[in-house]
Amino acid sequence: MTIRSYKGVKPVLGQGVYIDESAVLVGDIELAAHVSIWPLVAARGDVNIIRIGARTNIQDGTVLHVSRPSEKNAAGSPLMIGEDVTVGHKCMLHGCTLGNRILVGMGAIVMDDAIVEDDVMIGAGSLVPPGKTLASGYLYVGSPVKQARPLNDSEKAFLAVSAQNYVVLKDEYLAEI
């Protein structure tokens, strides 16, 4: 794995974290316990911060980045990802906030200052535009996303199961190291 400092700040890794050797993490990034970062993920916490909550998995080819502070946005746009989040393959998360128990479908893009509340599914290939809020408890699909329907109880339960499946998988990978 490649973990690099930027301006003297290096990523901080929680207990039981797995980072694939092909992933790159730079700068002010904090990973909570049991996070998994899979092949070819690029995460750059250079001009703002990235925080990833416990048991979250960031799958292959995903890009994580932020926006710098500016006159229009004094704090810039950090990337904040909650607990038990599954981010599918080849997603782009840029300066947004994701709550807990979220599934971001493969190839989805979530832009600056978007807010995704808890217990949400975002369909594969969807685009969440800048500043959009996705309310808790729904499936969102499309480009730009639209609220498709409420999640049923089994879908809501699956959100935590998906994250736990990746905790088990990353532990199997860690056992090989």
Automatic annotation (TrEMBL):
Domain of life: Bacteria
Pfam families: Hexapep_2
Gene3D superfamilies with a match to the protein in the record: Hexapeptide repeat proteins (2.160.10.10)
This protein's name: Gamma carbonic anhydrase family protein
Organism of derivation: Rheinheimera riviphila
SUPFAM superfamilies reported in the protein's UniProt record: Trimeric LpxA-like enzymes
Signal peptide (residue range): none
